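Can you please make up a protein's amino acid sequence together with its fold in token form to help me picture the idea?
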Amino acid sequence: MIKQLMRCVGKYKRDTILTPIFVVFEVVMEVVIPLLMAYLIDNGINQGNSSVIMTLGIALVISTLISMVFGALAGHFAARASAGFAKNLRQRMYYKVQDYSFFNIDRFSTASLVTRLTTDVTNVQNSYQMIIRIAVRGPIMLLFSLGMAFSLNPKLSLIFLAVIPVLGGGLFLIAAKAHPVFERVFKTYDRLNNVVQENLRGIRVVKSFVREEQEEKKFKAVSQTIFQDFSLAEKILAFNSPLMQFAMYGCMLLISWLGAQMIVSATMTTGQLVSLIAYTTQILMSLNMLSMVFVMIIISRASGERIVEVLEEQSDLTDPPQPLYEVVDGSIRFEEVGFSYYKNPDKLCLDGISLSIASGETVGIIGGTGSSKTSLIQLIPRLYDTTLGRVLVGGEDVRRYDIGALRSKVAMVLQKNVLFSGTIKENLRWGAPDASDEELERVCRLAQADEFIRAFPDGYDTYIEQGGSNVSGGQKQRLCIARALLKKPKILILDDSTSAVDTRTDALIRKAFREEIPATTKLIVAQRISSVMDADKIVVMDGGRISAVGNHAELMENSPIYREVYESQIKGGDADEIA
């Protein structure tokens, strides 16, 4: 885990190294100050020597100022190092997630990845800053102060050696009890984020079904679990403070009592006792610092483990050693394909799929809910890999292509249409970053989007809110189709992506496809049978298998499933119109 995290320090190694160096200088000056005080009391104040008082007084002021400067420099470099480390860590995690397949993302869940990129990184950042500064300052202060204390009075200093094992044992027990609780807390945070994300994304549904109270109960239940776990963890960590206080004040009392007796017996001077008490404070403060670092490490250890899980996760989709970069044409062939989201051949959602599609053909795919239509088309751009069999595009197994090259030639408009914050132009140019305004207008005319875009006051410069909340469902679908067309793909896949437009607009979009992009292979997944009736080939899916393949007339004669869907939609619609 440590090696993985340290790779993210990057160009902030200099700041990381300078921080402990300045901390050492700061500690040296702080350790010198009590020694100067002892000389000041014994040789200046007690002797009434004003020149010694003046000289040592100036030396104390200079030492304090130098210590303050070193402390400020240490703080500055520690802040830069930790913030830079966190920035690199977030970037590396984010870039890693970009390489994930859908399978990898499903394994973690979106809510969990968000928590790891935010809360967990912040915990590790805080811990890193404490380690390079406080964790260095504590031990050095402890060693230097112990050394000075033993040089002043070895007998009294033995008290510290008796206290340190007690503190060490106590801190070990606290860590052993607290770490499992924090691991549980951060997993519950994932659940909390999931509840919040679901609620915000589906807020319209929540309000339309008046489910606010139930959503509040769901949130309260998860929040209460976090409260209980955090309370338990904090109760365990709370033992750290009284343990430190007991050690600190116990040492102070013993040293004061025994030191007073030594002064009376003339075996110790007043200045030495004052210095020893100052060193006692420094020793115990350094132990307190170490306990704080210890607590932070306990918290961040669970976060670090979760971050490393993301960094070490390997995508199940990788480029071959010598990939193909050219997709010859838009032909597609499925050869005895079986697919399972769990990579389990015994639990296939697609089974025995064999299908050939010629380049330039228009293919409709229809079937009931859960018939695995979407699962089938997701194998073409290699969003998932087949569990059994293979998929060929342009005559080559999709696993032989460079993933980027393959997907650049396959445009896919998914069921859940997504627009991003930005203007309409910016959203469209996801399909081709260098596309001209004329090209944008052309694809929008094909997707029947140009008319409504021009009706906006700002036209193509209209700002789209997050998630496309300021455009209708049908407008969003047409913009997503236009964006896909801008890629000039060899294969265009529409996954139920005209469901929110009227039948006339749907027909116009299909007509534009036939006339303007005849060489592009077009796959249309639809629930509405009118969207696929004029396709060159229609595939009927049922229970993860291909039930029938043919054109409209052939399926009306040979496929009971297709005929039933046709009659329920077309005749049902006629009956409604007559009524």
About this structure: The radius of gyration is 35 Å. The longest helix spans residues 50-98. Residues 574-579 have pLDDT under 50 and may be disordered. The chain is about 65% helix and 10% strand.
